[in-house]
Each structure stands twice: as C-alpha cells, then as structure tokens.
Amino acid sequence: MNSFYFDWSGVLTGSPAAWLVAGLVNTILITLTGTVVASLLAIVLLLGRTSSANYARYPVQAIIMAFRNTPLLVQLFFWYFAVYPALPEWFRDWVIADHWFSPLPSGFRCLSPEFVCACLGLSWFTGAFLAEELRAGLKAVPAAQSEAALTQGFSHWKTFRYILLPQAMRNAWQPIVGQYLNLMKLSSLASGIGFAEIIYSTREIESFNAHAIEAYAVGTLLYLILGLLMGQLFVFFGPGQIKRNTVAARVASSGWLRRLSFLS
Amino acid sequence: MNFDLSVINDNWSYLLFGRTADGEIGGLLLTILMSLSAGLLALIFGILTAVISWRFQGWTRRLLYSGAEFIRSIPLILVIFWLYFLLPRFLGRNISGVTTVILSIAWFSAASVMHATLSGIEALSFGQVEAGLASGMSYWQVLRHILLPQAVPNLIPSYVGLFVALIKDTSLALVVNVPELTTVANQVNSRTQIYPAEIFLFIGVIYFVICTVLSELPRVLLKRSNQRLKFANGI
Known about the structure:
- The structure holds two protein chains of two kinds.
- By secondary structure, chain A is mainly alpha-helical.
- Chain A has helices spanning 9-12, 14-49, 54-68, 72-83, 89-96, 113-139, 143-151, 156-171, 173-186, 198-209, 212-237, 247-253, 256-263.
- Chain A is elongated and about 70 Å long.
- The model of chain A is unreliable at 248-264 (pLDDT under 50).
- Chain B is an all-alpha fold.
- A two-stranded antiparallel sheet of chain B has the order 1-2.
- In chain B, helix 1 (6-17) packs antiparallel against helix 8 and helix 2 packs antiparallel against helix 7 (139-169).
- Chain B is flat.
- The chains are: A mainly alpha, B mainly alpha.
- Chain A binds chain B through residues 1-2, 4, 65-66, 68-75, 77-78, 81-82, 86, 181, 185-186, 188-189, 191-192, 199, 202, 212-213, 216, 219-220, 223-224, 227-228, and chain B through 1, 70, 73-78, 81-82, 85-86, 89-90, 92, 164, 168-172, 174-175, 182, 185-186, 189, 196-197, 200-201, 203-204, 207-208, 211-212, 215.
C-alpha cells in the first residue's frame, strides 16, 4: 500500500478555498430554493393526484410516474440541453445578465443557466416523490376528518389546507425529511451540467493542483455537516409528537382542582 | 419543438449496445449488466450484514449501523470518487471504471438492504425465536429455517423498490466515464448538438419502461397470488 501525503494547504488556502466556499454557498442556495419550489410543486401535484376528476388525476399520475421512474441525471440533461434553450429570450438574458447578487468569490456565479436547470430538475424530481409521500400520509387521515370539516362549513380548499394537509404532513414527516435531505445530496448531480456546487469545486481543485483526496475529504465533511444540520432543523421545526399541551388535553389530564381553576 | 427521429434512427444501436461489437460492452446492455451485478452484490451483502447485526447486537451492530449511516449521508457521486481514487492505491493495480461503479452502487444499496431486511426480521414476533431456541435449534438454524423464509417474501416489494433506485443510480457512472446508457447518450448529444430533446427523451423512455415494469411487478404478482388464494379458499 502506498503512503499518502496530505497537504491540506493545497485545499484550504488561496483560490481552492474560495472555490470550496463558493461551492458551499451554491449548494446551500440550490437546497433552499429547491426545497421551496419542490414543496409548492408537491402540493399542486398532490391536489391533482387526489382530485376526483379523471382529466386531472390521470395526467398528474403520469407526470409523477415519469419523474419518479427516470434517473435525475437524465432529467437534468433534458432540462439543460432541451428545455432551457427553448425558454423565452428575455428570461435567458436576465439570467446571464450581471446582477449585484450573482458574482461569488473566485469567479463562480450563483444565478446562472445551470442554476435554473438544477433548480427545475431537483424540484420536479423531489416534488414528485414528495407528492407520493404526502398521498400516503393523506391516506392515513380518517375520512371523518374531512366530513366533519365540510359539515362545519369549511370550503374544500380550507379543509385541505387546515385539516388534511397538516395531518398528512405529520403522518409522513419522516419520509418527507428524507426526501429533503435527498434533495441536498442529489444537488451534487448538478455538477454534471456544470453547476458550480461542492462537487464541481472539488473537481476544479483536482485539475488545478491534483489534491483530489484532500478535496474529496473536505467535500465529504461538508455534506455530512450539511445533512446533520438539516436533519436537526427539520426535527426542530417539524410537527414532532402529538403535543399534550392543548386545552383539551390539559383538561383531560388534570385533576379537579386544576379544572376548577381553568373554569374560573 | 419539432422532433427529428432520424438521430435515433442513426444511433439506436450505439445507444443500446455501445461498442459491444468491438469487445467493449456499452449502452443499455452495460446498464443492465451493471444493475444486475450491483443488485446481486447489494442483496448478498445487505442480507449478510443484517443477519450479523441481528445475531451480534451491541458494538458489532453499532459499527455496521454507523457504516450504513455514513454511506447513506454522503452523495453517491462522492462514494464513486472515493473508490475510484482509493481502490487502485489499496490494491496496487488499476481497477476498471465499471468495477468501481458496481462496487460503489452495491455498497450504497447494501446499506438500505440491510435496514430493510433487519426491520423485516424484527417485525416477526420474538416468540418464534424463543420457540426455535427452546426446541434445541441454534441461532443460525432459527434464522435459516424460521425467520428468513418468513421475512424474505414480505421484503420482496421493498427489495424491488431498492433495485429500481439502483438502476437509476447507474446513470452516475457518467462521472467516471463508463459508457453506459446515460454516458453514451451524452456522447451522442455532444456529437450531434441539435437533437437533445429526442436523445434524452428516448433514453428517458427506456429507463421509464424498465423501472415502471419492475416497480409495478410485485403489486401485480401480489394481486394475482391473493386472487389465487381467495380462489383456493373458495371465497
């Protein structure tokens, strides 16, 4: 076995360090935008997928299947090579124009055609998976819930928004978090279309000064930290266990003295 | 967008078989072969590690769990890069890109197979283990003759789901330039330049058909076996 010589200064100083920082910023940016857009898409897809109208349900089902059953890399290539050039010219001009926010240190950009395509690809892919997870969560909500809401005078949309969706999200929270974490990890595939995220930076370093192992070690560490942070955030802001802190629960669990003080 | 299918007409055999005729397997054929070998390896190692962590709880299990956790929490693309750089150094000789990708994907998927198998085994009531042990069977015999024969049929749908994910993951072989379906499609696209929609839709449809058929298969089979069961029971 050969011995390894580690030279961390080749990765953690100068322009390699700046590339890694820019890559990290881009990974975080694509994860945030992808998460938001994927969630919105997932809700639209879920509404179509659970609609009672055949003309809405079948096409949406086909769309979800198409995005779930093809590799993300192929989808990214499709967005990048086939769809993006067909977008309106003013939009493409706006994307490549110099904005105050677009340059990152070291010549990378955050808003670029690659960013737009990575965002589209990741959002549709994750959105399709999220819609199916939410549908599974929705199935576990008793039908009486929506019946009760409708008899209370909730509209269909409000029943979905305030009664069904929160419960579906709570039921499917674990797999949903898994999908969001997956989105962060899969953003690494966007380096395949030249989006300047962490993996792209490590490959730049590799061809710049051949410190491949050190660069991959730093990249691995960054992904581990990002995943850990994201997981913690989702647990912290997630619905968690059913809270025992509602008034009804307090009344049910309290003794007569507490009940009296509650009434007074 | 007008479709010009002549590009598919000119390149379909390259897309499907790569340079197989010249002795270098490629295209869809390589994708299928890589998926099958990686899937087999992942199944064997996944079940093996599940069995080990079922039998030796404590530190052995914790070690296997953290290995699986680590591999699942970094992107597959990094696993491929790591093996691509480290395997030749450790083994002291060159490893082909195909082998690297197969091993990476197998390792990556084995972690999920392990978790699925373990939860399948532990879903069975513990009384079965106790009964087996009380009848004088060893732990391995309990596993071999009582637990696995019950757990594995229930696990087939989740194994198939993992296999479908694995097929899609083989497209990542592009990053080390292994000529499987996605890579050759990318090559054809770079050469022809003006037919990206046709090329990527074509290979998208290929992946879609394979993955959809596979993922619908267990449901159809299950339905049919349920019907047969109902028929046999006279319902």
